[in-house]
Specification:
Layout: H1 12-15, H2 20-43, E1 49-52, H3 55-67, E2 72-75, H4 88-94, E3 97-100, H5 103-110, E4 116-118, H6 133-140, E5 147-152, H7 157-174, E6 178-183, H8 190-202, E7 214-217, H9 220-226, E8 229-233, H10 236-244, E9 248-252, H11 256-265, H12 286-291, E10 298-300, H13 306-317, H14 321-334, H15 345-356, E11 367-368
Parallel strand pairs: 1-2, 1-11, 2-3, 3-4, 5-6, 5-8, 6-7, 8-9, 9-10
Helix pairs in contact: 2-3, 3-4, 7-8, 7-13, 9-10
């Protein structure tokens, strides 16, 4: 958007901090930047506001924009269908159009009086990686004679601490016939990821693994494309795996208290078909919510052990009925991520924005929230 000529009043990277202590330490600056943003809106009201995800800030911005009579277009819905459904009234009062990226969200909002449109998921419109297996192997030092497994433990340091060790032990259980690719998320430095993998490998509670078993790679989509199967922490990466069509296992671990609270808070509406497992857990992986049934296994908290992970992976590594069934299920679910074949989600967003634009005074300029 900046490249297209929009003015950056506040830069998202200047106010993006993760962790309780980090946010507290930077809170005065973050708040000053928020006030600066609101002041700029009041000084020169834009012709249109495009708010992207980031509900904690954007709901407040939407209130200011509504009072100024500025049309509000929201792209990428907050997951109000899972929790904090009380915020739905804010959407009803403050948002002119909600553009959603998952198919069940349109029905959810429309049934509750919100003008919503399913534009499709941008990841579903991306072409598959073009790099060949041979080129990829040479680039990252992988053995083409072995099967490769992608490990995506998450994009935050806390997720690495919670998830990576069990992945390493599962790798040791599976043995030397496999090599493991670990994509480095943009939010984690290569050095930190390398240290995290090294610590997990040498941890005294873990099984020994063979030298050269783990390979840090820069791009998750390429790793998923070339992997025989994958282990993916719950989050956006599961949609990446879905759009690539790679068989995978979903994992996640949080504190027992956090897990218990989340288990009580998450309630899906009628628009989402979701059944509890034998432990009473609702599915959380987006591919399962899109499909309306469990098409990929979820190993959460106490279910997430190295032994369970290795056992769940094995059927996906051979030419088995389980693998064939998951490939078919993923293809079916992937087809639901675009409203029509070959449609362009971003173009649909642009079309919706143009439809909301109205003649504006010369001083007005388009505005986008900093959470792009």
């Amino acid at each position: 958007m900046a490249d297209a000529g929009l003015e950056r009043v506040v830069r998202a990277e200047d106010v993006a901090h993760m962790g309780i202590t980090e946010v507290i330490r930077h809170a005065p600056y973050i708040h000053s930047q928020y006030r600066r943003l609101v002041a700029s809106i009041k000084q020169a009201p834009p012709a249109l506001a495009i708010l992207i995800d980031f509900p904690d800030v954007n709901f407040r911005l939407a209130a200011h924009l509504r009072r100024l009579g500025v049309p509000v277009l929201w792209f990428v819905s907050p997951q109000l269908w899972a929790w904090k459904r009380g915020r739905l009234r804010w959407v009803q009062k403050r948002v002119d159009r909600m553009l959603v990226i998952f198919p069940f969200e349109e029905a959810f909002y429309r049934a509750r009086g919100v003008d919503a449109e399913f534009v499709g998921h941008p990841l579903a419109a991306l072409p598959l990686p073009a790099v060949s297996r041979e080129e990829y192997a040479a680039r990252h030092g992988l053995d083409p004679a072995k099967q490769w497994i992608a490990l995506l433990p998450g994009s935050r340091e806390k997720e690495l601490e919670a998830n990576l060790s069990a992945m390493v032990v599962a790798a040791a259980i599976l043995g030397s016939a496999y090599e493991f690719m670990v994509p480095v998320a943009s939010t984690i430095s290569s050095e930190d990821m390398e240290n995290a993998v090294a610590y997990a490998v040498i941890h005294p509670d873990n099984h020994p693994v063979f030298p050269g078993t783990f390979h840090l790679v820069p791009d998750a989509r390429e790793a998923l494309f070339h992997a025989r199967a994958s282990v993916v922490a719950s989050g956006t990466a599961t949609v990446q795996a879905l759009t690539i069509g790679n068989p995978f296992i979903v994992i996640y671990r949080v504190s027992p208290l956090t897990f218990a609270i989340a288990k009580r808070l998450i309630r899906y509406p009628a628009e989402i078909r979701a059944a509890r497992d034998t432990d009473g857990n609702l599915p959380i992986a987006m591919p399962n919510l899109i499909a309306g049934r469990r098409i990929v296994p979820e190993l959460l908290n106490r279910q997430f052990t190295a032994a369970n992970l290795a056992a769940a992976l094995r059927p996906l590594l051979g030419d088995t009925p389980e693998r064939s069934r998951m490939l078919a299920d993923l293809a079916e679910a992937r087809g639901k991520l675009l409203p029509t074949p070959n449609s362009d989600p971003i173009k649909r967003v642009c079309d919706a924005a143009e439809a909301l634009l109205k003649p504006a005074p010369a001083s007005a300029r388009p505005f986008a929230s900093p959470a792009v």
